């Protein structure tokens, strides 16, 4: 993953931590100083404004397969993720996807890496 992608993910994670977990120390100034220290404030604060209004809600659940073509697939679990996002036209859209256990483990590993990067920026 490129450096700019990691920075954007760190920014989104910081905004999510502030919005959904009430971590008030994740202020705009703090995020900008830690993630984009060399960028002009006008440029990077616009990015925060744009990113802050994107994610409206996150829902998830775990499903078990009750029917399958063969017995090995019965009772396999999968995670269903749903993101409610605001489009540029200010309409609410839903992005829904499903992950099996292997893919979920990969995503959680990547999220842990993102959290580690954010923590590194915050020190």
UniProtKB/TrEMBL annotation:
It comes from the Eukaryota. Pfam families: COMMD1_N. Residues 54-122 form the COMM domain. Signal peptide: none annotated. One of its GO terms (cellular component) is endosome. One of its GO terms (biological process) is negative regulation of sodium ion transmembrane transport. InterPro entries: COMM (IPR017920), COMMD1_N (IPR033776), Murr1 (IPR037351). PANTHER family: COMM DOMAIN-CONTAINING PROTEIN 1 (PTHR21199). Belongs to the COMM domain-containing protein 1 family. This is COMM domain-containing protein 1. It comes from Mytilus galloprovincialis (Mediterranean mussel). The lineage of its organism: Eukaryota, Metazoa, Spiralia, Lophotrochozoa, Mollusca.
């Amino acid at each position: 993953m490129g450096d700019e992608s990691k920075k954007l993910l760190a920014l989104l994670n910081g905004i999510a931590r502030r919005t959904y977990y009430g971590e008030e120390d994740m202020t705009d100034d703090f995020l900008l100083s830690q993630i984009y220290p060399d960028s002009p404030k006008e440029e990077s604060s616009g990015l925060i404004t744009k990113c802050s209004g994107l994610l409206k809600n996150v829902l998830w659940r775990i499903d078990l397969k009750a029917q399958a073509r063969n017995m090995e697939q019965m009772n396999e679990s999968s995670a269903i993720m749903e993101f409610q996002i605001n489009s540029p036209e200010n309409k609410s859209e839903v992005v829904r996807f499903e992950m099996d256990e292997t893919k979920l483990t990969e995503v959680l590993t990547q999220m842990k890496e993102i959290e580690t990067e954010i923590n590194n920026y915050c020190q």
